[in-house]
Amino acid sequence: MKDIYIVLVRPYTGIGNIARCFTHYDYTHIAVSLDRSLSEFVSYSRRYHSFPFDSGFTREYRDYYAFGKHKDVKVKVFRLSVTDQSYSEILSFIRRCENDKAQLFNLFSMVTMPVLHGFRIYKANNCMSFTAKIIELSGLVKMDRPYYKYSIEDMDKLLEAHLFFEGRLKRRKSVRYGQYMRSFSVIKFAGDMVRLISGLTFRAVFLRKKSAVKSN
């Protein structure tokens, strides 16, 4: 048996603060960690703090969540003890997502989640669909709908029997923190936004059949 950790995060970002105003729910990000120390996480998210549209599969660290003046971050952690076979399938899925340069961040599904409850776009994920797929591959819980239709709050309830820890996770310095906090640029911000939205729109319109039959 191997352990994986599903980590719900209450980030300090402006987007997170806005989302909490509407949902009245603390956690607005979700990630996966493969080690008990919770030092490194994998998810679909922004790759740089100031550039939310430069996003996709990424490896995150504690100081990405507790950045700047913040010394810790509120998290809720679930531990899933999976079979060796399930663990191998989970690792394979993570590697496919990380190595596939065509992967995009599914912004459209994320922002419409409260209304449309999740939908697929070809080779696109967000933090919710990525984590829910890993939960599905664990084989530990019964999922009554497609994985990409689970919100963070849904997964919180789904995994309640596997709660490991809820509280403050202390900041820990990572080697990539300086790069993650790179200076803001209007040109990069606008270019990232255009590339992501146009890429998702093309796939949603012209690759709908692939979205329906091919797993991300």
Could you tell me the radius of gyration in angstroms? 17 Å
CA-based shape: globular
Low-confidence stretches: none
Strand content: 25-35%
Seen as an oligomer or otherwise, the chain set is single chain
Number of strands: 8
Helical run tally = 10
Percentage of residues assigned to helices? 40-55%
Strand order of the largest sheet: 2-1-5-8
Order of helices and strands: EHEEEHEHEHHEHHEHHH
**N-end to C-end Cα span:** 26 Å
Structural class, please?
A: alpha+beta
Q: What's the structural domain tally?
A: 1
Descriptors for this entry?
216 residues; 4-stranded antiparallel beta sheet; two-stranded antiparallel ribbon; 8 strands
Describe this structure in words.
This protein has 216 residues and is α+β, with helices and mostly antiparallel strands. The chain has one domain. The chain is 41% helix and 26% strand. It is built from ten helices and eight strands. It has helices spanning 14-23, 62-65, 84-99, 107-111, 113-116, 127-138, 152-158, 177-180, 186-206, 208-213; strands at 2-10, 29-33, 40-48, 51-61, 72-82, 104-105, 124-125, 163-170.
Quick overview:
Helices cover 41% and strands 26% of the residues. The chain is α+β, with helices and mostly antiparallel strands and 216 residues long.
Describe the secondary-structure layout.
Layout: E1 2-10, H1 14-23, E2 29-33, E3 40-48, E4 51-61, H2 62-65, E5 72-82, H3 84-99, E6 104-105, H4 107-111, H5 113-116, E7 124-125, H6 127-138, H7 152-158, E8 163-170, H8 177-180, H9 186-206, H10 208-213
Parallel strand pairs: 6-7
Antiparallel strand pairs: 1-2, 1-5, 3-4, 5-8
